[in-house]
Amino acid sequence: MKILLGYENSLCRDFINDHLAHLDADISLMVAGTLRDCMQMAAETPDISVIALDTEMPDMNGVAGLRQMIAQCSGHIPVALIGSLRRGNEIHDFLTAGAAGYLTYSLSAQALLAGLRMINVGEIFVPIDVLALEDQVTRTGRHWLTGRERDALNGLLAGHSNKEIARAHGLSEVTIKHHLKSLRAKLGARNLTHAVCRAIELGIAEETLPAAS
Fold first, then answer.
1. Which of 100, 182, 102, 193 is nearest to 149 (CA)?
2. If you placed Cys at 204, which of 30, 84, 91, 199 could pair as Cys (CB 3.0 to 4.6 Å)?
């Protein structure tokens, strides 16, 4: 997996460059300190898997910079943002503008890499401490969950096991466990039972289940 990271702070860039790539031999890492440099790297490197941009880079300009990078990549590469802990409505604005996730400065190197891996396979990653600030799920509804997460939630609501959910959708149990883990994080749930309770409480259960014929 080839990752492009933009960090305003040179110390952060050095730390990431020295430590993140060492966590996995399959990681290829590029770092830069400005949006302009990141966009140039993206233009010159067609096989990038994931891009993450620090909101504090001097030329980032918030959502405008995010949209520039997404346009640069023609929407083919997931672009996430990196920044300080923010309230849910701010994160929602980023996601609405096309961000593939939001990675906080407080994440450990291992958690940062895990988040980038989730984004690489098509998930939207937002740390649980962000969701704890505000129940963003209540405003984003079904659009907050990916299709596979809704499939997994449907299975839970129907009382199906991981194996049964996997069989119904032609997936492996490992893949279903991955989607359930992401679902729990987005709902702020401690376990699967709590996830079902949260889905019902937030009205997502009604949105997710197909209409009766």
1. 182
2. 199
SS3 label, residue 151: helix
pLDDT higher than threshold 60 for residue 206: no
User: What are the boundaries of each domain within the chain?
Assistant: 2-133, 140-208
Residue 146 is encoded by which pair of tokens? 């990916």
The mean of the pLDDT values for the chain is 80
Write the class of the CATH domain 140-208. mainly alpha
Q: For residues 204 and 142, what is the distance between their CA atoms, to the nearest angstrom?
A: 7
Tell the residue number behind the tokens 């449907």, with chain if given.
Answer: 154
CATH architecture of 2-133: 3-Layer(aba) Sandwich (3.40)
Cα–chain center distance at 155: 22
CA–CA separation, 124 and 186 (whole Å): 9
Q: How do residues 112-133 score in pLDDT, each as one tens digit?
A: 888 888 888 887 887 766 655 5
Q: Across residues 36-51, what is the average pLDDT?
A: 92
Predicted pLDDT at 197: 75
Measured distance CA(133)–CA(91) in Å, rounded: 11
Angle between helix 109-120 and helix 10-19 axes, rounded to 10 deg: 80
0.70 surpassed by pTM: no
End-to-end CA distance of the chain: 44
Confidence of residue 205 (pLDDT cuts 50, 70, 90): low
